[in-house]
Amino acid sequence: MKRLGPFVFERRLAPTRTAILGYSLLAILAALVVMSFIFWAYGVSPIKAYTVIGRTTLGSRFGLMEILRRTIPLLLCGVGLVIAFRAKFWNIGAEGQLLAGAVAATWVALFSGVSGPVKLPLMFVFGFAAGALWGIIPALLKVKLQVNDVISTLMMNYIMAYFVKWLIYGPWRGPTMRGFAYTDLFPRDAWLPLIRYSKVHWPTLLVGLVAAMLVALILSRTRLGYEIRVVGDSPDAAHYAGISFLGVSLWVMLLSGGLAGLAGVGEVAGIHHRLLEPDHVSLGYGYTAIIVAWLARGSPLAAIITSLLFGLIFAAGDEIKVTLQMPFQITGVFNGLILFFLIGVEVLLYWKVGLVRKGKGWVGKAGS
Amino acid sequence: MTVYLPVLLYYANIMAEKRTDAHPDSLASHQNVALLMRDITKVFPGVVANDKVTFELKVGEVHALLGENGAGKTTLMNILYGLYQADSGEIYLYGKRVRIRSPRDAIRHRIGMVHQHFKLVPRHTVAENVVLGLDGAPFLAPARAVEDEILQLGERYGLKVDPKAYIWQLSAGEQQRVEIIKALVRGADILILDEPTSVLTPQEVEELFKILARMREEGHSVIFITHKLDEVMEVSDRVTVMRRGKVVATLSTADVNKPTLAKMMVGREVVFRLKKVACERGQEALVVEDLWALSDRGLPALKGISFSVCRGEILGIAGVAGNGQKELVEVITGLRRATRGKVFVLGDEVTNENPRRIADKGVAHIPEERLKRGIVPEMSVAENLILKRHHRSPFCHGFFLNLRAVKRFAHHAIEEYAIMTPGPDTPAKLLSGGNIQRLILARELSGEPALVIAAHPTYGLDVGATEQIRQILLEQRRRGAAILLISEDLEELMSLADRIAVIFEGEIMGEVSPEAATLEEIGLMMAGEKRRVRR
Predict the structure, then answer these.
(1) Domain containing B478: what range?
(2) How far apart are CA B100 and CA B65, in angstroms?
(3) Which of B408, B417, B407 is nearest to B380 (CA)?
């Protein structure tokens, strides 16, 4: 029990599911409230802003499809990050792993010489492998040389982003693109099928949903999942039980990076149909997926819901830009606010707040 | 209105306390008593750390607080220094009742504490450390303002240290002087030293004792926490002995001798009556030959240890914590590398093998750090029960866990070991200390291990759990397991072990049989006073 002025904090050991859900919603609500001040400062009535956003995203087929389109990369990266975070491996590198997947898919599409129905599956396989490779490097660095995982995974993003730039300005610049920094368009057999009248490349969405379920199964029902959870929760106990850190870290980052790589395949094969500037391939999906995973609190199935939520925010960002004439970067502000409040409510999850009174009783309680 | 309510209550609270302050208690109004702590009780989950402890400190005395680790010495002093709040009991300073809520309160009441692990900023100078958080320090060049005072204090008490030196340049002894200066600059009349000699060289210990003598002459009162008998005899005027959260006695040092103190410290009677049947010594399950290893700090922690344990016997390792027991256990179980020497389990060499290989050989390990190492706190009781065996049949077939087998085993283990838990799916961290230990025992012993390494298995547990766990260990011995029992509790070793080896500073001081040896003798060996040549 701690005291701070007139407040008493009492440690709470295990927050209930309802508490977690309630406080997460509270955080999102708080972010919405603060956002309305930003709308207001732009001279836009917050009520009008939220009405417009609601109508154009949730209220129309086009809007719903836009949400799904944004959800796909967030889901794949988010599920991957859930695995990494369960092992307390702080993978901030989903963005780079996504780009690695996009590069590998582009190679298969344009330069491998493969064609026909095997091409798309092969693009996914290569994309997964490239993302996994990009994830395994920081895992090796961490286990073998004690390099901080946050720094190494973050830095690997920049390396991959500049590698993509080099490719599209250099060796892979498309001869038919009249000097623009793109690769050539993929041949038709490397295009993912879409849901009609939308940009939703449904095969990737399906892969994402299956991945979420598979990861849930791995975490709860397999030896690997068991070891991942032990390593994440208590490295000392893992050491005591003879669990290999190297093995677990490699598997974790292989899966985490691989799933992000699949997201990259989906973006180039489903939407752009070519490799282009890294910040056009991904609108920071790899970074937003960190919040997706955090909000999912270690549950791959919850990541389906949270990635939909952030898909909605991205889609709303588009609408804000078009309808309300505000910059698209507003989504970044909103994402930041949500993360900020989520970390803020953590205190309420693990500490019961009350007021000091003579003796040991409580006066009023915030939450429980 | 409702907004102001908490604030009002808060101030009402303070006022109420001020009123109690105004009534000095007649009991504590003796002229020369600096401090009286009366009937202090402090309970931590599962442990009574202080049980109605009464402690008195006279003006101008050095008072030793003697006891084994876990006896409650540090808890008592942390209460005095405001780091913990007592559940009940009163504190009087110079006859006046006080309430100490924080170290800041303690400092205001002229109490200073030098912790076992120094609280200094290594990259700052001595003067900067002394002035940090000091009330009334000037805004500009605060360190300069205390430099003279540091030099003066150094002169007066023999606390020689350069105020401009950086902390990282100083030896442990010099850093300790800085801590003492910090307390003196804040006007401390009562100084608490928590195991001050544990980090010092013998020469530095001599100097510290001179400083303490000077402080006594200047009228300061010193509380000296220790578990070393020599120091008590050499430096203190009076001594209070604590054991298991209670005060055994407060005596004048002139009236006691070391053997008496040793006996008081480790306990005089065997509390538990255990049925111990004679067992036949079987095959050698563990052989350790000339084992050397380093501590976490890179210093030699084991210096050529050799012993063996046979099936059907318990070898007890006695010793004060920090004399190499932890390292010994870790080397045998593969958690720490041996720099020299060999370990054999059932005749096969396992030196520096990985922990899983050693465990799979039939070595159970009941670890000292239960919460940190023994369980995975967030995971369920059932999942914790299969740790270490999660990769083997019946719990795992290929890639998949057999959840039904896990659950069946959990129900069985919870029943057999009487683990008090709402259910197998409860997170292990919600269990009490005794039940966490039962969980660990259930897991480690269920595979019928050939060798059981039990480190402080009953440390901090209540009487019921202690007795149950001791019975379980004896049952394992009867079954034919070899048991290496590391404990600080001599009663426990005397009642359980077939042989007792005493460890001191990484060496075995000798081996005794519990029937023939006296507590005094073992106590003196534990303090490094006496060595018995191995037969």
Answers:
(1) 282-362+451-535
(2) 20
(3) B407
Interface ipTM above 0.85: no
What's the structural domain count of chain A? 1
Q: Does B8 map to a domain?
A: no
In one letter, which amino acid is A24?
A: S
Read off the tokens for B399.
């890639």
User: A 98-157 residues with CB below 8 A of B?
Assistant: none
Cβ contact (<8 Å) for A224 and B399?
yes
What span, in angstroms and rounded, lies between the C-alpha atoms of A340 and A344? 6
Residue A8 banded pLDDT, cuts 50, 70, 90: confident
Within 8 A of A13 by CB-CB distance, chain B residues are 427, 429-430
- Checking if the pLDDT of B116 tops 60, the result is yes
Which is it for the CA torsion B370, B375, B378, B382, positive or negative?
A: negative
Model pLDDT for residues A50-72, shown as the tens digit of each residue = 898 888 888 889 999 999 999 99
Name every residue whose Cβ is closer than 8 Å to that of residue B283 and which is 6 or more positions away in sequence. Answer: B310, B311, B346, B347
> Given a cut of 60, is residue B223 above it in pLDDT?
yes
Evaluate if residue A364 carries a pLDDT over 80: no
Q: Residue B195: its pLDDT value, please?
A: 84
Q: What are phi and psi of B393, to 5 degrees?
A: -65, 145
Q: Residue A363 gets which letter from DSSP?
A: E
- Looking at every residue in chain B, the average pLDDT score rounds to 85
* Residue A20, CA atoms < 13 Å, CB-side half-sphere: 12
CA pair distance B368, B487, nearest whole angstrom: 10
The residue of chain B nearest to residue A231, with distances taken between CA atoms, is B376
Above 50 in pLDDT, residue B26? no
Claim to verify: residue B256 and residue B395 sit in the same structural domain: no
The first and second tokens of residue B307, run together, are: 């012993």
Q: Does A234 sit within 8 Å of B377, measured CB to CB?
A: yes
Residue A9 lies in a domain: no
Q: B346: which 2 tokens?
A: 């059932």
pTM over 0.80? The answer is: no
Examine the pLDDT at B1 and tell me if it is beyond 60: no
Judge whether B249 lies within some domain.
yes
